[in-house]
From TrEMBL:
Domain spans labelled Xylose isomerase-like TIM barrel: 48-267
Cited PANTHER family: BLR5974 PROTEIN, HYDROXYPYRUVATE ISOMERASE
Descriptive protein name: Xylose isomerase-like TIM barrel
Keywords for the protein's UniProt record, in alphabetical order: Isomerase
MF (Gene Ontology): isomerase activity
Cited InterPro entries: IolE/XylAMocC-like, Xyl_isomerase-like_sf, Xyl_isomerase-like_TIM-brl
Pfam (any one): AP_endonuc_2
Length: 339
């Protein structure tokens, strides 16, 4: 029996599906040996009607749950878009939308919480709101703290964990900013989500990514795994054009330095696992979100071949640094067959 700490592998399944159908998503991830996934965009009926998971109706949720049973899949988190709206109603040249916050709580946030409870997950992935494009996020920090706190409180009422993902252009676009948000929100059920690719995409190297991992480590709940190859010919303007990001790569070849990050993760995993299990999660997830064939503001695509490349790349780094994980075995097949 290994003494290595252990993570749970997962993926954003819509990245694997050419047509976003639920069956494509289940087939691709179960064939890779994964037992968990995060739903985002999905065509449950296979009729070409792709919806975000929080917009499904009762019949579609029921059908999706049947597919989970058939393919032996469980939900890691809701791949929500909560927090990807403007903090203030100001024309800043971006296409980001503003929604009055009370209305937002009753619509998007309520629908996301319903998706989590219906699909049997404790985790919701969210974001930290957009300040006006090109402006310093600091003056908008307190408003973001207040709104994130309200969302976390609604999640807590349902026993859910709210995770803030690091991402360019948001209030929490850097490790220090996201750590500050976590300290100020100060909710036991609110954690942060590290994503090395989202940091490297801001023209940062491996040591900068590792530094921001350290900034987030106390508040961290789980990790998204994607990497980015920095284009040295691109001038950094302080704002990432998310629709033009095409340099995402597997975790064993990019500029985010996953070898260093995961080696550091190994030392804090036991403490992280204890925290997440106390909150009701099954452990610490490493969730592949590779964007190998392109990424954008609300998602990305890798294809069934790309998701396989990304998962195998992550496994190779985990093996190298000494972190254990589970993929499906014959015992899992026997369980599914009722033996």
């Amino acid at each position: 029996m290994s003494d290595n700490p252990r993570v749970i592998l997962s993926a954003f399944a819509d990245e694997a599906a050419n047509h976003k159908t639920a069956i494509e998503q289940m087939v691709a991830l179960s064939a890779l040996g994964l037992k968990y996934y995060s739903p985002r965009f999905i065509d449950v009926k296979g009729d070409g009607n792709v919806k975000h998971v929080v917009d499904l109706n009762k019949a579609e949720y029921k059908q999706l749950l049947k597919l989970h049973d058939e393919y032996g899949m469980s939900v890691t988190s809701i791949g929500a878009r909560v927090g990807k709206i403007k903090l203030v109603d100001k024309d800043d040249g971006s296409h980001n939308v503003f929604v009055p916050f009370k209305k937002y709580l009753k619509t998007e946030v309520a629908n996301t919480i319903n998706a989590a409870t219906t699909l049997g997950t404790k985790l919701i992935r969210g974001f930290s709101f957009y300040p006006p494009k090109g402006e310093d996020p600091k003056p908008y920090m307190n408003q973001a703290v207040d709104q994130i706190g309200q969302i976390a409180d609604l999640c807590a009422k349902k026993g859910l964990i709210y995770g803030l993902e690091i991402e360019p252009n948001l209030i929490g676009e850097t490790g220090p900013l996201l750590a500050e948000l976590a300290r100020k929100v100060k909710r036991a059920n609110m954690v942060t989500i590290y994503d090395g690719g989202n940091i490297a995409a801001q023209n940062k190297d491996a040591m900068q990514c590792l530094s921001e991992f350290h900034d987030m480590s106390k508040s961290m709940g789980w990790l998204h795994i994607k990497d980015y190859a920095v284009d040295s010919d691109l001038e950094w303007t302080g704002v990432v054009d998310e629709e033009r990001l095409k340099n995402f790569v597997p975790a064993n070849v990019g500029d985010a330095g996953h070898e260093f990050v995961l080696r550091e993760l190994r030392t804090i995993l036991p403490k992280m696992e204890k925290k997440m299990k106390k909150l009701g999660a099954p452990g610490v997830f490493l969730e592949v979100e590779p964007h190998l064939k392109g990424g954008g503001q609300f998602g990305g695509f890798s294809g069934p071949d790309g998701i396989g490349v990304a998962v195998r790349a992550l496994c190779s780094v985990l093996d190298y640094v000494g972190i254990d994980y589970d993929l499906r075995t014959f015992k899992d097949i026997q369980i599914l067959r009722g033996f």
